[in-house]
Write a structure and sequence with these properties.
The two termini are 15 Å apart. The chain has one domain. 22% of the residues lie in helices and 36% in strands. The protein is α+β, with helices and mostly antiparallel strands. It is built from 3 helices and 7 strands, in the order ααββββββαβ.
Length: 102
């Protein structure tokens, strides 16, 4: 799994195990990603949230946020520049933990 392979790179913030459903989202994203796309893990409302940044090759692209089960929780950015996730500004309340993939 991707998270276990990344473990040696993040000694201070040990990556969380990735569920099969989330791994499927990661694999699909990587196949279609821009060169500068990445996936970061944030702590938000007490839970790990996996933030899929699409990169700059796709103008107005949406940032997708999945939970550990691989369920889509929020969509940020896009043409309208959404920043809210479940009624609050995601970036005001989320705490960056580590890069899952880049």
């Amino acid at each position: 799994m991707l998270a276990m392979a990344m473990g040696a790179c993040h000694k201070e913030n040990r990556p969380l195990p990735v569920s099969a459903a989330l791994q499927q989202q990661v694999d699909t994203f990587r196949l279609n990603a821009c060169p500068d796309a990445n996936i970061k893990v944030y702590r938000y409302a007490g839970a790990a949230e996996y933030v899929f940044y699409p990169g700059t090759c796709s103008s107005g692209a949406t940032i997708l946020i999945y939970n550990a089960d691989g369920t889509l929780c929020c969509m940020l950015g896009g043409p309208l520049g959404f920043t809210d996730c479940n009624g609050s500004n995601f970036y005001d309340h989320a705490v960056y933990e580590y890069d899952l993939w880049h």
